[in-house]
Amino acid sequence: MPGTRIRTLALAAAAVLAAVTLPTTTAATANASTAYDDTYYQDALGKTGPELKSALHTIISKQTKLSYDGVWNALKTTDQDPNNSNNVILIYSGVSRAKSLNGGDSGDWNREHVWAKSHGDFGTTTGPGTDLHHLRPEDVTVNSIRGNKDFDEGGSAVPNGGGSLTDADSFEPRDAVKGDVARMILYMAVRYEGDDAFADLEPNESVDNGSAPYIGKLAVLKKWSAEDPPDAFEKNRNEVIYTTYQHNRNPFIDHPEWVESVY
Fold it and tell me: Does 29 fall in a domain?
């Protein structure tokens, strides 16, 4: 009979479904960047806009500070080449270079302040001048070409710059680290709010900021963060800084979606 046939098909379908093991939805599978949500970020969850920025500022301002000399050895760990433990990866060039070649001569790598230290006049003093979350190894010559330029798109190729571009007033890093650069800049803007004897650092839409405590362009940085999400190298670096050195995190690496929430 038709009714009997329908019930038989329904029971067969139910049996097939019962045999299928469906994936269990957990916090880890729903969002891979929530490992610290119940602890480190608990006071930021559920907030947006200025409230989120304020909460994150309070959280990440609790940090251990390094001396500028101490940055040398720290970078040899945070930026270690995963394929060669004797080398570091240079941020703009993408080159793997011997850790021992740190210094100020041609062919050496030095300490690049991604948030240019003249933008806020903090120099190399302990605090923003030594914050590992925006200090990266880079070739001395390429670092000099970047100088204190703001970030924007366009320009001509930087010699030995790994695909980076530059013009008279801006610098565009290679594609693989554009998001890294954006998240470092936004970290600095949240971390340094002018309440600890340093300038209130903020991104804006200009490329002629000079020594003002601003860096642009915000719209471009947001675009880069979306186009180049955190990769394994960037995530590992954040973890090493947190566990071994400063004991604070870059929230925009853990939660890239917070870029839009804050900015």
Answer: no
DSSP E strand boundaries for the chain: 80-81, 84-89, 96-98, 109-113, 135-139, 150-151, 156-157, 165-166, 170-172, 202-204, 214-216
Tell me: the pLDDT tens digits for 141-178?
A: 999 999 999 999 999 999 999 999 999 999 999 999 99
Dist. CA 31–CA 11, nearest whole Å: 36
Residue with tokens 């021992």: 100
> 67-116: per-residue pLDDT in tens?
999 999 999 999 999 999 999 999 999 999 999 999 999 999 999 999 99
For residue 217, whether the previous peptide bond is cis, meaning omega lies within 30 degrees of 0, is: yes
The answer to the question of residue 191 being in a domain is yes
The answer to whether residue 90 sits within a structural domain is yes
In a domain, 23, yes or no: no
